[in-house]
Amino acid sequence: MVEKHMQHGFPIYQNFVDFKKAFDRVWHKGLWDTLRSFQVDEGLIRTIIGLYDGSTSSVRLHNKVGEPFPMTVGVRQGCPLSPVLFNIYFEKVMRNALEGHEPSVSIGWRPLSNLRFADDIALIAGSSEELQDLTNRVNTCANQYGMHVSTEKSKVLVNAISPAEVDIKLNGKTLEQVQTFKYLGSIMSEDGSSANDVHARLQAATAAMTRLNKIWNSGMISFTTKFPIYKSLVIPVLTYGCETWTLLSEQEKKIAAFEMKCYRTGMHNLRPAGHIRPAKQCRPAREASAHSTGNRHVSNNNEKKIPPPKKKKKN
Asked: Which residue intervals define the domain Reverse transcriptase in the entry (predicted)?
């Protein structure tokens, strides 16, 4: 989305909204009303209310526990139902906030004003005025439902060829504008490139490889055992969020170089158990899975063949 808009000279304005203790501020009465507004079965609602009725909490300070007090806000910690209840509650907040709003940003003719995962929200707009309006709407509706936006942790990011400074205010305070922001584990950059995110993924994958050095250095573990470990514990770290990458040839080369390095690391010291020699020109890991079929000797194509001894001429 960002890449296409920047190609056509249209900037993208984003506000990464942070809520203060979002799960602990779910208002119980508001939650029951929200469930009814979404036409949830009344019997199920009464069952859920029964889970929360009579709930109390106490404060512990210096090994002393205070008097219990009734809980009227917050979802139960560790309960598998809590994320579902929070999503329903927050969906109501966002629907009220976005009512009547016409987004100027779209993906494939589909209007887009925000991205959401639980309480991690990115408000998206085509202008600073629209972003300010979205911020005000979300803040107002969140307050009505007992939730509060953090002005210190909410950040603004502008994706443009020449990003301009913007003044987005929340509760009278100007939100900080940043050049990069980590959203759901992926690094967003104001220039729209994936260079920073790819670099961070390579560092994380390198750390994952290093933690498994005892396995890679073991000559008693075969390649057919090491390779699935590499695919399960290293590749997912490297490729996290790769669906959103816009790669340049330079970044593709770095990824390929890392893969080759990992493959060499996984192949060395394998001769005692797997009878596999390290090759100077080893295949990338994705090809290795197709060519590795159990313990076998892999010859090096670059090795010089020793000619057979010459027969002595008989006199």
From this structure: 1-188
Query: Which secondary structure element, helix H or strand E, spans residue 310, and what is its range?
Result: none
What sign does the dihedral 178-164-190-128 (CA atoms) show?
A: positive
Indicate yes or no: pTM above 0.90. no
User: With contact defined as beta carbons under 8 Å apart, do 232 and 285 qualify?
Assistant: no
Q: What is the pLDDT of residues 175-234, one digit of tens each?
A: 999 999 999 999 988 888 889 999 999 999 999 999 998 988 888 888 888 888 989 999
CA distances from 48 to 28, 73, 81 (A): 10, 14, 9
Distances, alpha carbon 138 to alpha carbons 24, 122, 157, 161, 308, in Å: 18, 11, 17, 28, 81
Parse the chain into domains and list their residue ranges.
Answer: 2-57+68-189, 195-291
Query: H or E segment at 302?
Result: none
CB burial class (10 A; 0-12, 13-18, 19+) of residue 88?
A: middle
Contact (Cβ atoms closer than 8 angstroms) between residue 44 and residue 84: no
Alpha-carbon distance of 25 to 261, in angstroms, equals 48
